[in-house]
Design brief:
Blueprint lengths: L1 E6 L7 H15 L3 E6 H4 L21 H11 L4 H12 L2 E7 L7 H10 L27 E8 L15 H4 L1 H9 L4 E9 L6 H16 L43
Parallel strand pairs: 1-2, 1-3, 3-4, 4-5
Helix pairs in contact: 1-8
């Protein structure tokens, strides 16, 4: 299997860096081909601007969606964006690793998605009959994705009643609204809690959990998100009344909720 590892941490000697190094080694030992995007080491530019779209941008008002779609179709995207898209096309699975900062990704990683997942590649993909292909369909359908993150919060505080919010709900914008939106099957995340004060024995346990999850990268069951075009949503993209009747919130978008 071809695996792309996207890493967003400014310190390679960190706990995150140690997990990344062990994870890449594990994948190679398992016989997988691996490529990496180490965003800080690459000095990745996270800012979308007209320079991303070559001659297509011109001197007119920049409409990012439409302009990026035309640049993508004409092969005029900047070379750094094209290189990352080529890695994604090559990959069968993508590991996205980052420290959880202010309930989200570091800006450099958010900017990677902003610039790489342009219209026509990550979104705005249509079928021959005009249907929009998203939430389980799209250009990246058939690929797998898994989030690996470190968080300062202890695990109970990111549980169902924890003050920090349940982990999968905190990650919903990334796992459902970005990765699954673009068509990828998203595996449950690997989270290391209390990462800023982790004793050696807990690091070893976290490393072993990651190794186990990487062994199942091709076979583990993904999060059972409902697909947009699978019959669960009406023409306004609202969950039908007979699916999870009486319920609301993010969990209704999981098939077991109904």
């Amino acid at each position: 299997m071809n695996v792309l590892w996207v890493f967003a941490h400014p310190e390679p000697r960190s706990l995150s860096g140690a997990l990344r190094d062990d994870g890449l080694r594990t994948l190679r030992e398992l016989g997988h081909d691996v490529r990496e995007s180490d965003l800080y080491a690459m000095k990745w530019n996270p800012v979308v601007d007209a320079a991303d779209f070559g001659a297509e941008a011109g001197d007119e008002r920049l409409v990012v969606g439409a302009t990026s779609a035309r640049a993508h179709a004409r092969g005029e995207l900047s070379p750094d964006i094209v290189a990352e898209q080529e890695k994604l096309e090559w990959a069968d699975a993508v590991v996205v690793q980052f420290p959880l900062w202010w309930y989200g990704m570091p800006a450099i990683l958010k900017g990677w998605f902003d610039r790489v997942f342009v219209k026509g590649f990550g979104y705005g993909v249509r079928a021959g009959d005009g249907r929009t292909l998203r939430y389980g369909e799209g250009r990246l359908a058939g690929k797998r994705a898994m989030v690996v993150l470190t968080a300062g919060a202890r695990k109970p505080s990111m549980g169902p009643r924890g003050v920090n919010g349940e982990l999968n709900e905190v990650l919903f914008p990334l796992q459902h609204g970005t990765l699954f939106y673009a068509g990828m099957a998203v595996l449950p995340p690997v989270a290391v809690h209390g990462a800023d004060r982790l004793p050696d024995e807990e690091f070893a346990a976290a490393r072993d959990v990651l190794r186990t999850r990487l062994r199942g990268l091709a076979t583990d069951e993904p999060i059972p998100f409902r697909t947009q075009n699978g019959g669960d949503y009406d023409e306004d993209l609202v969950l039908r009344p007979d699916r999870a009747p009486g319920a609301a919130g993010l969990a209704v978008h999981l098939r077991q909720a109904g």
